[in-house]
TrEMBL record:
Its cofactor is FAD. The chain crosses the membrane at residues 12-30, 50-67, 88-108, 128-145, 157-174, 194-215. The keyword Transmembrane helix applies. Gene3D superfamilies: Nucleotide-binding domain of ferredoxin-NADP reductase (FNR) module, Translation factors. GO terms for molecular function: 2 iron, 2 sulfur cluster binding; flavin adenine dinucleotide binding; metal ion binding; oxidoreductase activity. This is Predicted ferric reductase. The keyword Cell wall biogenesis/degradation does not apply. The lineage of its organism: Bacteria, Bacillati, Actinomycetota, Actinomycetes, Micromonosporales. Keywords: 2Fe-2S, FAD, Flavoprotein, Iron, Iron-sulfur, Membrane, Metal-binding, Oxidoreductase, Transmembrane, Transmembrane helix. It is a multi-pass membrane protein. It is found in: Membrane. Residues 216-316 form the FAD-binding FR-type domain. PROSITE patterns: FAD_FR (PS51384).
Amino acid sequence: MPERRGPAGRRLVVLVLWLGLLASVLPWWLETPTGSLRGTDDVLIAAGRITGLVAGYVLLVQLLLMSRLRLLERWIGTEQLARWHRDIGATLVIAVLAHTALILVGYAGLERQSLFGEIRVLLGYEHMVGAFAAAGIMVALGLLGIRAVRAALPYELWYYLHLSSYAVLVLGFGHQFTHGQQLFRPGPVRTGWLALYVVVLVALVWGRVVTPLAFNLRHRLRVADVVAESPDVFSIYLTGRRLDRLDVLGGQFFRWRFLARRCWWQSHPFSLSAAGNGRWLRVTVKVVGSHTADLRELNPGTRVWAVGPAGTFTAAHRRRPRALLIAGGSGIAPIRALLEEMPPGAALIYRARTPADVLLQRELDWLAEARGTQIWYVVGGRDDPAPRQALSARGLTRLVPDVARRDVYLCGPPGLLGAVTVALRRAGVPRRQIHQATFEL
Ligand SMILES: Cc1cc2nc3c(=O)[nH]c(=O)nc-3n(C[C@H](O)[C@H](O)[C@H](O)COP(=O)(O)OP(=O)(O)OC[C@H]3O[C@@H](n4cnc5c(N)ncnc54)[C@H](O)[C@@H]3O)c2cc1C
């Protein structure tokens, strides 16, 4: 089982990122004695420079977080990286806007120009058209990051628009190194920044191109079969070469690109619904939109391009010897795989609306017997009081009296996850022992 770097690795990465920020603004601090700021315009320009350095650095961090480097994904977790990326995104947009506004107003004051006049002057300099374009794209990306805007757009459209952040890197690069007060002169500061660019580019190429290419050339995955599990859920079985050498854990997911008509241009995340067994892989998919509906029609033999494995929702990230697994609906997929790798004595609570919605029941019962796992099927509609009681703090403690001393793994719809997390906290389960797979990146 791969090592769990978890919190220690995460703390190390956070420390390195903060030190990086400090190192990138330090030259500004050293080169800007307080006495040199004589008027408001000087102060504005100095503030514009520091926000420019912060924006440049945060953009590189943003790209690094999304580089899909295995090391980062293993230490921090794909879901956590995506959360950081989302949270830091707002800082980046604010830094870019502040940099643009402060430099414009500062220089307009110094040169006694109107704002429009100053924009015209700046656009005349080399690389400045690109810099303005980069700022415009950044602001548009900031708007796309707003939850309501993101939810209103088809996921793929949002995703492809989001990729324009690479253009920001290219368009903004030139002006940083020709006009940036701390960067235009050859020396250690400029060299350090260039090295940072190289590190991020190498990480991107390694994580997004080299690693997936090597994985797919080695394993050459294909669809073996598509099997219905319920009216709106089906499993896709995959075969390939050297699956016995696949380094994957139950609870992890891949981004799958099925190379069939209508599907090849999209890549979607699905968790394995059975732990790696050296012979085949399986995902269990609920039809929620057009892509998942198309996948149901896949033919055996279809080639598959997979990127992964990813995710820290694994038995290796456990803190306690025993675990409680709680699944709702199609959230059983990763939980079913996880169950295979949990030590004996695990407990499973599976919430479903109707008996027909209980998926993979035969395998679950078989696994429960083989691994000494206790399973409760909690079946009933949303307004049914019995399931609600079973998943309350008191109900959970009654079913699993030592719940507070277990790791709890949760996967299911957001409403269920929220309510069960509150109940678990009330039942005394420390936050660090609660692991959630939200099916959201
Ligand atoms: C880590 C992870 C693991 C998952 N595991 C499973 C699983 O085992 N079984 C299962 O049934 N579902 C799983 N999902 C959810 C699954 O990815 C979406 O239901 C599917 O992508 C929907 O695609 P669609 O075009 O059919 O539906 P849409 O109607 O297009 O999308 C429905 C919602 O799914 C999300 N989504 C859509 N496309 C993508 C994408 N390319 N990448 C990320 N999110 C997307 C968006 O939030 C969107 O609002 C998982 C999601 C994540 C993030």
